[in-house]
Amino acid sequence: MTESVDRVSQKVISLVGVTKRYGDVTAAHDVTFDVYAGEFLVLLGPSGCGKSTLLRLLCGLDSVDAGRIERNGTVLSGESVCVPPEARGISLVFQDNALFPHMTVWNNVAFGLANQPKEAVAERVAEMLDLVRLRDVATRYPHELSGGQQQRVALARALAPKPSIVLLDEPFSDLDRSLRIGLREEVRAVLRSTGTAAILVTHDQEEALALGDRIAVQNDGRIEQVATPEALFGNPASRFVAEFIGATDFLAGEIASNGILTEIGALQQETDAPIGTAVEVAVRPDDVTLSPDPAAAATVVSRSFNGMSNVYRIRLPSGAFVHSLQPHTLSLADGTAVRVKVEPGHKLAYFPNHGGSR
Amino acid sequence: MSARATARPFPTARSVLGNLLPLLVAGLVIVPMGLLLVRLLHPTTAVWIQLWETILPLMIRNTFLLMMGVGVITFSLGSGLAWLVTVYRFPGQRFFDWALVLPLAVPTYVMGFVYMATFDFAGPVQTTLRAWFGADLVFPNIRSGTGAILVMGLTLYPYVYFLARAAFREQSSLTFDAARAMGYSHTRTFLKLVLPMARPSLVAGVTLASLEAMTDFATVRFFNFPTISEGIVHVWQGMMNRDAAIELAAVFLLVALGLVMLERALRGRSRYYQHGARDGRTGGRITPVVLGGWRRWAATGACFLVFAAAFALPAARLVLWTVGDLSRAATATALRTVYTGYVLRTFGLAAVAAVVAVGLALVLAQNARLPEHKMGRITARLATMGYAVPGAVIAAGVLITLAGVDRSIATAARWIGFNSSLLLTASIVGLIYAYVVRFMAVAYNSVESSMDKVTPQMDMAARTLGASPRQVLWRIHLPMVKIGLAAGAALVFVDVMKELPATILLMPFGMETLSVWTYMLAAESLWESAALPALTIVVVGLLPVLLLMRVGRLTTAEGHSA
Amino acid sequence: MKIHRLHTRSALGTAATAVVVILTAACGRSEARSNIVNVYSTRHYGAMEPMYAAFTEETGIRVRVSHGGMHALLERLKAEGERTVADAFFAVDAGGLWLAANEGLLQRVESETINANIPAELRDPEGRFFALSQRIRSIAYMPGRVDPSELSSYEALADRKWRGRLCMRPSTNVYTQSLVASLIAAHGEEKAEQIVRGWVANQPEYIDSDTRILQTIAAGGCDVGVTNHYYLGRLIDQDPDFPVKMFWANQDGRGVHRNVSGIGVTAAAANRQNAIRLIEWLSDRAGQAPDATGLPGSNFEFPVNSTVDAHPIIAGFGAWRADPMPLGEYGRHQADAIQLMERAGYR
Which of B154, B383, B448, C30 is 20–30 Å from B509 (CA)? Predict the structure, then answer.
């Protein structure tokens, strides 16, 4: 856990057993997690997994079918309760930024400060615009700004009323890659400096790992795991998480007395399953070593060169594929026979094999 | 995250009122039409036989010929001229680009009487020609179907021109260049590629023009070319058989609705494909071609000819007549006493109708905007079908509806001991009702297209920033759509000002409008006197046309910066 | 913190309220109107205003006029029934007056002044409507191309010698309807249809304007036409050299086709006395003046009050003898006339 979470381990938002159905589709299924003060939580999942539904439920744009949402211990959504969005103290930043086109940047930021005295509004807006370094475009209209600037205005607007939490709905996915990385660092810095908790919704695992204090992985309406990026990467709680995070291959294996037996050798690690259980081991490219060996049965299928490294795709005798990360200095032609070993130096995650997986 | 999920409405918007109100609005429009159709269940057979054996076949034939003729002329002029000004550069191109829309401000019946007065046997053109070439000169008779079709085609082509011009501008230069690279000539590219791609706009424009021609009863009367619209008025007033007129109106209503569906079918899926084309537009506009030699002057000449015939000539004629009429002291005094009254009445009526129509359109659009509300869009479609229904038909429906309401009110009033003298039928309520039914689509389209810019995300952002639904309406929706509302109101205003058949039939006590004034004088060939009210209509009508062009320009400008 | 329930007042309610307010305001009724007479008039604006103004000045009764097509106004009167605001119905065609009377929309009026001003044949025998001016629909011709001796009657226009030389008003026009109705009254339907078919066989040019018919005759577009006399009066007033002449038809037989403009008091008149005052005034010497201040004079029509002269321009058309047929005949046969013209192919 990061420092900020340790500092104030106070729950800002709690979801307890939140469930929402649209017709036959269960968009949120028994969702439970907390967000702590100042924390940056990433809600990660593939398209259609129910992330947006959770956002709508959090904002009060939809009511829950079961479970409850609490803010600082007060129920926001629950059975027969649904505090309207305007009274929740939860702000939203959208992918398409949703700035009000008929208002200047200044007025956009001031929108959420409607009931405050003029001087206070002016002070707060100026503060926010300074925060996102947009003071000089305050009198412009949104369509006169670049995409990145628009998104920073949207963030300033969301932060202005001092919400207890900001929800960011794929805010970077419409931007160019170069802009995206710079902007997301900046957004995170701004949030950290204000100490505002945030939930970022994304389908981009790289973004999630780079930004999240913790990551909640959602699939098919359920939360599969909530953990720090490192824990998520190292100890995926489900095959889905393992597959979704880090280019994971799965090797068929069997529990043995001192580890797991696979077609490329035995893995020495503690197991808690009965001997003989069929499992799949999650293997990442950095766990796999290889060396050219004309006698070996595995062959290089393809190579993808990333500058600093090579990633080799290798066909094993059984027909299964694994990937191996190698320094850029090791260059092997396609078709080279290689000896493959798994030498992780740490425990590998494994999951029961229900057959069919290669 | 699917679009469907993000676009879900607030639970809070699902209030009973919010759902019921649009239905009530649609009901306002549907009830008169429904009552009309119910009349069909009990046809007055004898009258139908008489009609069928005498004038009805002629009227059906004429209506068909008129709509086809106007369709062909407006299509050719509209798309041809739009192509010229969009793709080619020639002297005067920048002027004609907007000036060719101006005939939209001239009502067909004004154009009709100006042409009649100018080109018929006793008119100045034929008189002059006879003076030059002798009395035996044969000139085609303008008082005919051909005359009516030509005049209406000239007046109504801007519907096609305006939409075609916008469609051509939206088209990507890439497609165009690709076709040129494959060896297509400009003309061939136009016929094979540009026209088919602009089909939805062209079909919409031609349909609008044909529907306008179908609605008209005054022009065809001037030209001795009885159509069904004219026939309804004829049967109603001439044969004193309102029931038969209502039945005729009901049948006509069926035909009109059929046409609308046909148009939908013709336009069909390609509507979306065009939207897609706009969104995914790459490359700039089609690079203009500078014409040289005789071609440039031919292009200028063609544009000038149409502009002169469709706008400059009638406008000049109206101005001269007005000056002539005002120069006679007696008329000038008489006019001074009545003119202001006519203008104030007309503007008042038009303003009230515009505000009501836009208000109701806002209700419909608010409802239809939420993607979940399929009913909302169906409701809106039903509530806006009046644009396809001739004014006389709407007047008939509104009259029987309000007469029924009046009877109920009178009965109810008697029950509680009052003698009700509330007379919806003879009040401006009936007239405004008819206007709103007729022009709801005009208001709705403006409101809806401006509402498109308000994304559901903006609502959500505003709500989470502390705005209540009412505040969202006042602080986000209204400011964002106000230009659309204003444009819609302006368009309805002008349409009401021009409207004739419903006004004549439902005009309350002392509420004659400029259009009625114009028609009555023109029907008596008192053209000089008719010129002033006609000119007033044209001048006021120009304002929203120019506004339309400005908005059009803004839209394209935004498209560029985005 | 306040906990809100799942509901809200829809903002749409505001719009609805506004609409209702506007509609309610729009249908507010006018106040009691004792100093007013409301007239439904098929007569065009302008011509009548000076007379109404003079009437108001003399009597203090304000005249409010609603213009409209005859049939539209009749429908209106019928639909409104007892609740109508109209006190008087003014029509420029005897047929329309008769139709209104026949529908029970007009009431009987007994006034010695009116009876003294207007001769009996120009009043409804039952006192329901009164002519205020006389208009003669007859044959206009171009001297030089037509010798008056060639002309005789409406019926004779069916003669083949007029083929391609006629200008006629379409059947939608009430003057044409009344003329054909008079043919039916005079000859019976069969003979009348024969005559109309004769006209149709001569392929007339249909022009929906008497003025334009006269101008077309002057320009050489046709040689004869059937028009109301006062249109020629107007044209001669504007241009004393206007060449077209008026021929009084059927002077050797039943007489020329006379139509009238006239007025009746509505059955439900709230201001009955005011309406009667108006009729008395309009039929008296002031209202009947031969110049622009009088109802007939302002429009080059012949007065109904025999103590008043006609406007000099139309007096110059010569003396005429009218068909003594009761005015009600035009209305009685109007529907038949329309159907007859449709059958005969008259536009």
Answer: B383
